[in-house]
Amino acid sequence: MKIAKKSFFFFSSSDELKEEYNASKVEMDKVNEHTLQTIQKRKSMQIEKKQFLGQKEEVERFERLREEKVYYARSEKKKNNKM
After folding, report:
1. CA 46 vs CA 43, 50, 54, 77: distances in Å
2. In Å, what is the CA distance from 24 to each residue of 9, 32, 35?
3. How far, in Å, CA of 64 to CA of 26, rounded?
4. What is the pTM of this model?
5. What share of the chain is helix, strand, coil (3-state, %, to 5)?
6. Which residue, 46, 24, 44, is CA-closest to 36?
7. What pLDDT, on the 0 to 100 scale, is given for residue 70?
8. What is the pLDDT, as a whole number, of residue 1?
9. Number of Cα atoms under 13 Å in the Cβ half of residue 66
10. Which member of 33, 68, 71, 81 has the lowest number of beta carbons within 10 Å of its beta carbon?
11. pLDDT of residue 6
12. For residues 11 and 4, what is the distance between their CA atoms, to the nearest angstrom?
């Protein structure tokens, strides 16, 4: 008889817990979706950062080459003027 009472209590209260469970599951799904979106956004930002760093390096390389070219042109001009 004790077992029957416990079973009855368990099954009758499961309806009460069902709403709480469903609400918790919906909230968990929303949190999981938000987490995935955050991870994807972070990955996108990392890719964008890598692209910007690559562009920055390219600009720095271009500036360095341009400065070398100007320096070389000036030194050649000085050599030609001395002759």
Report:
1. 5, 6, 12, 46
2. 22, 12, 16
3. 57
4. 0.56
5. 100, 0, 0
6. 44
7. 87
8. 47
9. 6
10. 81
11. 55
12. 11
- Residue where the block lists tokens 């890598």: 50
Per-residue pLDDT tens, the chain, 83 aa: give them. Answer: 455 555 555 555 667 778 888 899 999 999 999 999 999 999 999 999 999 999 999 999 999 999 998 888 888 777 777 65
Q: What is the amino acid identity at position 10?
A: F
Concatenated DSSP letters for 19-49? HHHHHHHHHHHHHHHHHHHHHHHHHHHHHHH
